[in-house]
TrEMBL record:
InterPro entries listed in its UniProt record: Dehydroquinate_synthase (IPR050071), DHQ_synth_AroB (IPR016037), DHQ_synth_fam (IPR030963), DHQS/DOIS_N (IPR030960), DHQS_C (IPR056179)
GO MF assignments: 3-dehydroquinate synthase activity; metal ion binding; nucleotide binding
Organismal lineage: Bacteria, Pseudomonadati, Pseudomonadota, Gammaproteobacteria, Oceanospirillales
CDD domains according to UniProt: DHQS
Function: Catalyzes the conversion of 3-deoxy-D-arabino-heptulosonate 7-phosphate (DAHP) to dehydroquinate (DHQ).
Protein keywords: Amino-acid biosynthesis, Aromatic amino acid biosynthesis, Cobalt, Cytoplasm, Lyase, Metal-binding, NAD, Nucleotide-binding, Zinc
Cofactor(s) essential for the protein: Co(2+); Zn(2+); NAD(+)
Record protein name field: 3-dehydroquinate synthase
Pathway: Metabolic intermediate biosynthesis; chorismate biosynthesis; chorismate from D-erythrose 4-phosphate and phosphoenolpyruvate: step 2/7
Organism: Chromohalobacter marismortui
Amino acid sequence: MTASSALPYQRLHVELDARRYPIHVGPGLLDDPDMLVPYLAGQQVMIVTSETVAPLYLERLKHALSGDGRDVREIVLPDGEHTKTLASVERIWDALLAAGFNRRCTLVALGGGVIGDMAGFAAACYQRGVAFVQVPTTLLSQVDSSVGGKTGVNHPRGKNMLGAFWQPRAVVIDTRTLTTLPARELSAGLAEVIKYGLIQDVDFIAWLEARMSALRALDADALTDAILRSCAIKAEIVAADETEQGQRALLNLGHTFGHAIESHQGYGNWLHGEAVGAGMLMAAALSQRLGWLEPDEVLRVEALIAHAGLPVTAPASMSGDDFLSIMRLDKKNIDARLRLVLLSRLGDACIHDATPSDMLDALLTDFPRR
Ligand code: NAD
Ligand code: GLY
C-alpha cells in the first residue's frame, strides 16, 4: 500500500501483483475522465446505479466516461438491501446481453455497497468475468465495500451467501458525494470506520473520539482523513489475505452478530452499519466476559458507537436463540464450530472459536434490548 500527496487528490494502492489497483480519493473526481477512462477495458461501458443515486450523479459520470466513440449505457436498479438479490443481478446481465456487450466491456458501479456488491458480482460472472470500476457514493462503500473485491447478493436464509471474489480495476472516491447522503447513512458508514480503529489502530480510536462531531457535520478534511486511514488499513489487510484464509476475517468484527440482526429484522430495516455498530458492542462485551477488555474499555467503545449515532442495543424482538440459529450459518464457521471476531485488546482483534457456550448464551440473553 502506498500513498501520494503531491496530487490534488490522494491515492493509495491495493497491492495484488498484476491485479494491483488504485484507490483515488478527493473532491469532484466523479467528473474527471483521467480518474476513470484509463481503467476501462474497451469501448463498451455499463454504469450500474440505483434510483436514488441516478438523479444525483449519473449524468455527470456519463459525461466523464463518454467521448472517443465509447458506448456508455446505464442500468438503474431499485434501491435498498432487500433488492440485493440474484434477480437484480440477472437484470444487469440482461441489460449487458441486450446491449450486445462482449468480454471487453466494463461495468462501473455508481452507488452504495448494495450496488457495488451486485455490479461486482455481475462482472465476475458475465462471460466468465469482465472489468469493473467502483465509484462508491456512501461513506460505508467508500471506506469498506468498494475495496477488496468481495461481491455478491443475499439469500433469504443468509446475508451475502452467494458471491465471488472479483477485484475492481480502480476505486474512485468522490468525497463530495457525501454531501447528499442522509445522516442515518453517514452514521452507518461510521460503524465501519470505527471498526478499523478497534481491530488495528488504537490511535485511530482516539482520533475518532476527537473528530466524531466534525465527521457527523461533514467536515471535508476530517472525512477525507477518515476515508484514507480506513482504506489504508483495508488495502493492507486485503493485500495480505485476499480470499480470507486468515486475517481478513478480522474485518468482520461485529458482523456475525450484525448479520444476525439484519437477517432477523428483514433486510433494510436495520441498516448494515447500524447492525455492525450494535454487533461490535456485543463483541466487545463478550471480550470483557472472556477477561480481555476492562469494563471501562467497553464503555469507551459504547460511547464512540453512540456518538456516531449508532444503536448500542439489540432489537427487542430477538431472543438469544434467534441470534444463535442465524450465527450458525456464518461463513467464517468451520464445520459446527462458531468462530467469532473478538477484541484481544482495544486496537487488536482475534478470531476465537472456543467461547464457552454458556458464556455466549448469557451474553446473548443479557445484552440490552430496545
Ligand atoms: P446502500 O448501498 O443501500 O446505500 C444506502 C442508501 O444511500 C441507498 O438508498 C442509496 O441509494 C443511497 N445513496 C447512495 N449514495 C448516496 C448519496 N451520495 N447521496 C444520497 N443517497 C445516496 O448501503 P451501503 O451502506 O452503502 O452498503 C451496504 C451494503 O454493503 C450491504 O449490502 C453490505 O453487505 C455491503 N458491504 C459489503 C462489503 C464488501 O466488502 N463487499 C463490506 C461492507 C458492506
Ligand atoms: N467487509 C469485510 C471484507 O471486506 O472482508
